[in-house]
Amino acid sequence: MRVLIVGAFGTVTSAIIRKFGKEGARIYALTGGKNSENRYKKVYEQYDFSYDNNCIKEVFESVNPDVTIFTGAFDSNFEWSSGYSEMVKFGAGLYNCLNAFSFLNHGRFIFLSSNEVNSFDESTYKEILHSQRPLESGAIRTYARVYKASALKNGEDICSNYRKTTGSDVIALRIEELSFETKKPEEAVDTCTRMCSELLRENSITKESEKYSPIYITDVVEALYKLVNKDLLKYGLYRIHSDSSITQNELAELINTSFDTQVTIKENISDISSNDDIHDMSEEIEVKIFKDAKSCAQQIIKNIKNNRSVFASGSTVTEKFSKRIAQYFKGMLVALIPFIENMVIFIPFFMINNRTTGSTYFARLDCYLIYVLIFAMVYGQQQALFSSILAVCGYFFRQMYSRTGFEIMLDYNTYVWIAQLVILGLSVGYLRDQLNSLKADKEDEVGYLDSRLKDIEDINIINAKLKDELETQVINQSDSLGKIFEITSTLDKDEPEEVFFHAAEVVSKLMDCKEVAIYNVSNRSFARLMAFTSHNAKKLGNSIEYTKYTEMYETLKRGDVYINRKLEKDYPLMAAAIMAEESISSIIMLWDISWEQMNLAQSNRLRVVSYMIQNAVLKANRYIEMIENERYVEGTKLLETQAFKALLDAFINARKRGLADCSIIKINPGTKDVKEASIDLQKNFRNSDYLGSLDDGYLYVLLANTNNADAGFVTGRIKDAGYSYEMIDGDVDGGAYGD
């Protein structure tokens, strides 16, 4: 399953990635930040493009996700204190991602919303839009909540309408009171964090509702995974909530007690109803809540106490407001610089003009015209007009040395000069502005095309990398079907006696598990150990009553893979059955896999591996039944020579490779022949032990899954029956039957 996570780095995003990664999904991330320096560790590929970028369509086509999760309410890319601009940015990004998703014609798009939608108040929102006065930090914090609530409400409506108009599988999931531990105050949205932060900053607690019903993040991601895997969903808007709750008075008292304070509790309860079309997720999907309200609150309070300085500062919003004010004055200063420069430069031109007015050689030189043209060429029309006004003022001031203002006003030459000055200045300024505008448009177009080309190059580089990795996986990786088939098919070349031992090695290699055991079912209740890869793998013993392991037995009987999620003692961590005619034939047990491997992906891999070795194991079982019923010397439990030699070779080789235990006893029949001795002694051996002859006049016994130290109970019976014996640790008649 391919999953595309749309969201910046954060606690919620990381939790989703961990869950889906554990279940074997291939995770891709769209971070929303161009050239982001942060990199996800467990993500297959990461795209650092803003959500409104034109290349998002190419990203979706490249990833081709089965599921897209837009983190929305929990995405830290958005600075809600910026107000309207962030609302526009949020809506544009969501709509762009939805459009890119719709071109795929498959998959599911999930938009994550939160109970913050309930704080949307239309009257407050209108007040914000029409407010022209600077906001205090407290007001900014309140208005930021309203901006975010409005954006989330619009996001839910966009998803709902998109589902209706396009027929796409678009789901909006509203998470009520999500709680988790974080060191970033801007990430947390739950009531407990808000009240604790308020206590630390303002030494007060405000109650905004009657109940506190948190749902912990691990429960949410578990439910989200079930939502992703649900085939058909009736509606487009769901809510997930906890059934466990405490009153906010109890929560406030818990906070007071934990922080060893006793502050008054203020009330600011708003009665805002939620969307009537929202449906409870638990109606269609089983939602399990493991952490109750009180334990959630205690865990969050403990986290805030450990990070008191971060949550107590409360300076984030104030700093952002101060930063905006500073940027405003900085922009104003930059805008005033040309005017200041104009007035400063005007002074020397005014002085030069006064000196040249009475000069014989420079009297006809118009210094003011030069001054206006310079600023028209450098700054354009606006500064040309301003410099013209200054020049006219300077001209009038100089003329009033010898004439009155009334005489200057009546002189038509004055107006001709002013017209000449303004027309030339504005004309040159206009041409300058037009040329700069054309140049800027060209640079913008070139910049846009360059950025598009760079984005496409980045996507193509990623695609080429993914293509090479996929080719390598298909050809070389041990979890590819081709590689699994290549390894398991070697079992078909084994002799029947060796299949179980080799099969244990194959499972160990393919499942990356050092402790594997294979039990062969001997009747309806018992199974006997056939092969193991470590001493710990045979901890259940050489023979087990497998039906007593009820949970495992019921799972295997249904044909499913058993996963020991509760870590039950004396149960393998994972097990699978090899079936024969709808009944269990053999059981594969895994004992040392990690917790991260106990997921759906590993379960499916074990299922595939067991299916692929099934034919070889069933063939070996049929052979064992055959030698038990058809290859014995008539009237005895003595195996024919060739059958016994093959069995002996298989066990000795398995013992050398650490896959099985066995002991070999050489018995001297004395005056009797081998057949008579076997009849006399057969009652002293188990059904899993083998008697045979090597045509040397001696009777041999192969004790399966028994080492020499544990063979004492058998050798004692042989001695009591009046036969001499010896344990074989070396060669048997020069053959390779020893250690």
Automatic annotation (TrEMBL):
Gene3D superfamilies tied to this protein: NAD(P)-binding Rossmann-like Domain
InterPro entries, per the entry: Epimerase_deHydtase, NAD(P)-bd_dom_sf
Keywords carried by this UniProt record: Carbohydrate metabolism, Membrane, NADP, Transmembrane, Transmembrane helix
Statement: the UniProt record of this protein carries the keyword Lipid biosynthesis: no
Domain NAD-dependent epimerase/dehydratase: 3-230
A Pfam short name: Epimerase
Bilayer-spanning residue ranges: 328-349, 361-378, 384-401, 413-431
Disulfide bond keyword on record: no
The protein's name in its UniProt record: NAD-dependent epimerase/dehydratase family protein
Organism of provenance: Lachnospira intestinalis
